Each structure stands twice: as C-alpha cells, then as structure tokens.
Amino acid sequence: MFWKFDLHTTSHIDTLLEKEDVTLTEVMDEEDVLQECKAQNHKLVDFLVRPQYMEDLVTYITQEPSDDVEEKIKYKYPNISCELLTSDVGQINDRLGEDESLLMKLYGFLQNESPLNPLLASFFSKVLSILIGRKPEQIVEFLRKREDFVDLMIKHIGTSAIMDLLLRMLTCVEPQQLRQDVLNWLNEEKVIQRLVDMVQPCQDEDRHSNASQSLCEIIRLSRDQMFQVQGCSEPDPLLATLEKQETVEQLLSNIFDKEKNDSAIVSVIQILLTLFETRRPAFEGHLEICPPGMSHPSFSVNQSILEAVRPRLKDFHQLLLEPPKKNIMKTTWGVLDPPVGNTRLNVVRLVASLLQTNTHIINMELINLNTLGVILDMYFKYIWNNFLHLQVEICTAMILAMPPAQSENLKIDSDQEPVRESHLLKHLFQKCQFLQRILDAWSSNEKAQAEGGRRQGYMGHLTRIANSIVHNSDKGPNGAQIQQLISELTEDDKERWETFISGQLADTNKRNTVDLVNTHHIHSSSDDEVDFKDSGFHQDSSLQQAFSDYQMQQMTSNFIEQFGFNDEEFADQDDVVDIPFDRISDINFSLNTNESANIALFEACCKEKIQQFEDAGSDEEDIWDEKDVTFAPEAQRRPRSSGSTDSEESTDSEEEDVKRDPFDPNNASSDDRMEVDTGEGEPKDPLRSNSPVAMETCIETGDPLGVNAPMQPEGELYYSDQWPGDEAAQPASSPGGKAGGSHAEETVTTETLTNGSMKETVSLTVDAKTETAIFKSPTDLHLGSCKCTLPSHCK
C-alpha cells in the first residue's frame, strides 16, 4: 500500500544511537530493533558492524548463557543476535563472511563437547547457512581449510541442527562447479562411510535416526539433481559411493553381525527403501503407484544393491520369526505377545519393495524361504494391525498383477508359443494355499459375527485382495495362469470359490458401492413437484456445456464479469449505444409439458371470482360482452339502415365541419353540456354510471360524450345540418314519437339534467329493429345526435 502522506515517525533507536555511551544490550532491548535492521537503518547498521559489537553478537550465539540469568530471559540476547546476523543485510554479511576472526569464533562452537545445546546449535546452523548461501566461495574455502570439519560434523550428527547444516552444504551452493567441488571434497573426506558407521547398535537412537535421514536425503537430492541437470557429465560421487555393493554390505553387516537393535535395523531398512526408489514418488504409498490389475514395469534398480541384499534375505526372514525382544503390549482388544513391532513391519515393507523390482533371483530366494507364507500368517494373526494388512495387500497385488520375471523359465504350449509362468504366483496359490485361507477367514468372520462378535479388522483388505484375484484372472497379464491354478483346486474348493465370488463377495461389493448423486432420482416431499417429475428437457449440447462451464467456475474476483451482469445493464438503456447481449439470454429452455390441466384450473378459479356478479339462474347475456357501437345523426339513421355506405356518411360529416363555424356564438360551451367522465379527474355522472349503453365518439376532448365507451371499427360519427323535429323529441308515452317505424319498434325516453345553473333536456330514442339508440340535446348544435349500438340484453 502506498501512502499519500509520509506518516513515518522517527524511531527511538535513532535517538538512542545519538548517545555516546550507548551499549549493545540497550539497542537490543528496543522493540523495533529487528524491523529497523531489516529496513537497513543506516545508523543502526553502522553501529552493529563495529568490530566489538559483531564479536559480541557472535559470542551470544556460540557460548552458553550464565546460569545466574533468569530462565525466561536467558536466551533473549542469543535469539536477537541470531536474528540480527541473519537479517540478510549486505554490510553484516560482508563483515561476518570476510572477517576470519569472526568465522573462527563462530566455528569454535563445533569444537564443544557433545551433546551440543540444541537451541544454540540452531542459531549457529542458521547463521552459517545464510553465509553459505550469500558467500559460498569464502565459506567453502574457509571450511575446507579446517581439517576436522567433517569429523566434527559427524561427531555432532545426533543434533538435528548439525544434520541440517550438512544438507545445506549440498543444496545452498549455487554455482554448479562449486557444488561439484563440494561433493568431491566431502566424498574424499569419506562422509558416506562415516555416516554408515553411525548406524550401529552401539550408537544412540538419535545418531541412528539422523545418520539414516542424512543418507536418505543425499540419495534423493543427488537423484533429483541428476534429473534437473541433464547436461552434467560428472556423476554424483556421493550417490555412486552409496550405491556400491560394499557400502550396502557394510550397512547390513552393522545390523546383523552384532546384537539386534530395533532402531539400527529400522534405520538401515529406511536407507535400503530409499535406494530401491528409482525416482521420487509423487505421492505416498505403492498401491497408487502400482494399483492392482495394472501392469507393473520393472524398476531399474542398481544390480549391485540387489546382489548385496540377496544373501541377507534369510536374515530378514529370521527377523519375521524372531524379532528383537519386545515387551508384552496390553490393548483394548487384548494382549499382544509379542506385538508386531516396527522392525517386522519395516521388513514386510522391504519385501514389498523387493517384489516390485521383479528380479528372478530375489523372487526365487523368497520362494525358497517361504517368506510369503510367514507374512500371510502374520496377516491373519494380527487382525487389528492395518499397517501390516496394507503391506500384505501390496505384496499380493504385486504378485497377481506383475508379469513374470524376464529370466524365468518358458513353457511351451500346444501351439508352440512360449508362455512365461510366474513362480511367485504358483507358490502363492499352491504352497501358501491363498484361496483356501481367504475362504476360511471369511467363513470364520461370518461365524463370529453370527454369534454376536466383532467383524475382523482385516476384512476390508481381504475384500480388496479377493477382488484383485477376480480382476486379474479376467484381465490381468497372468489371467490364464490364475485360471489354470484355480482349476487345479479340489472340486470342493472350486465350488466354494465360485459360490463365494457370486454370493458373499458380490453382496459385499454391492454394499460397498457408493451411488453418485446422478445415478438416482431425488424426489421432493412437496406436492408441487408432482406435475414436473416427468417433464423432459431438451437435451441441447450447448445448454449442457454452458451449465457445465458455470458449475466449473471458481468464485474469483472476475466471476461476475465472466458469468453474470455488467455495469451497462444497470445504466439507462437509452444512453447506452452498444449493449452487449447477455450469454444467458441465448439459452432457450424447451418444456414439453401438458398445460391443459393447469388451464382448466385457471379458468375454474376465474369463474369462481366472477360468479358473484352474475344472477343465479339468469339466462341473459353478459353485460360486459363487447358490442358494436355506432353513432349517427337522426336524419341519416334511416338511410343508413336502408343501405347507405360509411364513405358517403363520412363525406357528409366532413362537409358539415366546413360549414359550421366553431366560434359561432350559437354554439353551446362545454360547460353547458352534459357532464361525463373524461378521464381527467372529473366526477362521473350518475346517469352515465347507471346506463347500460357504452359509447365513444373518438372526437376532440371537448365532446362531453366521446370519452368512456370504446370505439368499434365500424362505429363512425355523423353530423346533421338541423336539429330534428319536435316529433322525434316527444316523450316515450307519446303515440307520435317514432322515427321511421311503428311504436313497437321505437321507444322514446326524455330526461332533464341539471348542469350548474342550467338545465337541459335529453331524449333517448331506442330502435329495436336496427338495434340503435339516439341521444338528442337541443343545447348542442355541433353534435345534433349520436347513434349507438345496443347491447344484446337491451333489445
């Protein structure tokens, strides 16, 4: 973050350093001394690099604090000194790396007697490691001049910080040539042989562990470096020494020719397991590297290692039978006498790695020793040790899925084609009685469970082993041989096996199968979902891809830009010229549903809502039905009914508009006309509200009758030159009140309306024959009369 204003305040260290008699401890007591040092405060750095203070800093990390100091602040100054020296400030690195007196004082820490203080050792290792990284030439040259450097490193290898320093020398030296020089120097100093000598029963457990880990890391680092630097012509001398047959033989001699020591045996096995790794695995476990049922390519292990291990296989086999003495272990399940132990577990891991090499001489040696039979005995004896069960499963998976070793004998079949047989597979099925032991263990477990006992702890792995047999007999490289071995079983065993794989094993696999979400329908408990359960969606590939892309989206900062809305969609659309189409709008859903039931339900609901406006049992037509509305002058009503055309009447109306002066004082103002609802906030006339006649003239808003009624397409306005005669204005009871028809066909109604201070008379003539009604008002000279088409219920 960049600040607009400089809010940096002056550190108190600057003020403190201005004192002439300031001491190093006073500076180290400041809370922000480390931050100021890493920020390369010039005053502070200049103060620290003074020879006296640099020597004091080195002294703090190399000498034991006084016992008189309080415990909680005993290592305060050593810790701060280490942080100051490793703050990666150029001036401090230069002063410390180029001053040999300071380096000698620092190196003197290694000359202390064992065991070293682990905390001070970590400070020493950290300071020397950063010097190796920043000043590799000077530091390597200085260390090579010290003849006892390698001896002291091996002497203190039991301290983990010293082991880390040794590995730093192999990884932190950047120039390739300088690194090669360091490797040659360490190899000349016989660092590998010295580390091998540390793995002996006479040494303590810390030395065993750290020496073994150092050798394992040297193997991995050297192999990784070989893969990374392809053009390196010089081999790694440390790796070459480790892979020599005499080195491996020395390791094995340390643990077998002397008293058995659990820690030493495990440490040596760890080194052998690392040597059997041709490349560093990407993840832990061999099942993932070589899953059952897949072909297992042979590992290109150095032959000298296998030659050194082969004579010692009998010793490893004996460790399975007679491990180092272990005390009786009481567990919640019961008493283990003896327990499996770390030694035997690692021996089984070593056997699994040896099987993975798929070497004929190793395989034959394991067959002769019957090591696989002993391992199976341990599998069924220690029913709750899943570490052991996993390793046994790996061993059996290797044997079932590995092709026969290259040097094994060939068998000629009837077609004269060479068929290579696996001796391990034959040994496993015949000598070890693999299938019979699986069937017996399964039956024993079912019997124990039927009696209320627990399920055996190895049943999960046993299920996987049985599935591996079935799979490899069908599709594995040894399928024909497995089927042949099964066919050679007794009739009883073959029947038991067939019944097992078709019954118990199949049922177990069915129970263990986890259904995915899309393998079954999820039904909702809501009744609303009933109509949509069988609704099919159009299987559009683009739609499916769009939805799949949406599901795979990560919730990142540009998620909305990739999928959702953008800023332009929230702006005024009239102001946006180029509006991008949303991707979602291109997705069309096609629903194949039957909506007849929903339509019927909707119409029934509407009918219930409108039913309250209808009279029960009434057979009259709905008053809201749309009808034709026509307005015409009385003088032209009869001609229209006798066949006059709309065009002629429209022409006459236009002529009358020309003749009549809109400013004639004889014309009545809008205030003298009948009040109607014009839709502009005026009160609706009660007469109009109660009248069943709906009409509209579609003329200027000044017309008091041309607002509320919708205009039909055929409805047009007709104007008259004169006001109709008195005959037409007679009351409805007058016998002479007719207009071109009998009294039965016409009905005349006269109403007197009050509009403010004025009164006017309006007559309504209803013609049942032509289904029209004529309004007449003497005060309206502009509109002589208007003609309306009556609704059907007014006929």
Automatic annotation (TrEMBL):
InterPro entries: ARM-type_fold, SAPS. Residues 747-756 have a biased composition (Polar residues). Residues 646-656 have a biased composition (Acidic residues). Residues 629-756 are annotated as: Disordered. GO terms for molecular function: protein phosphatase binding; protein phosphatase regulator activity. It comes from the Eukaryota. Pfam families: SAPS. GO terms for cellular component: cytosol; nucleus. Residues 670-687 have a biased composition (Basic and acidic residues). PANTHER family: SERINE_THREONINE-PROTEIN PHOSPHATASE 6 REGULATORY SUBUNIT 3, SIT4 YEAST -ASSOCIATING PROTEIN-RELATED. Belongs to the SAPS family. This is Protein phosphatase 6, regulatory subunit 3. The lineage of its organism: Eukaryota, Metazoa, Chordata, Craniata, Vertebrata.
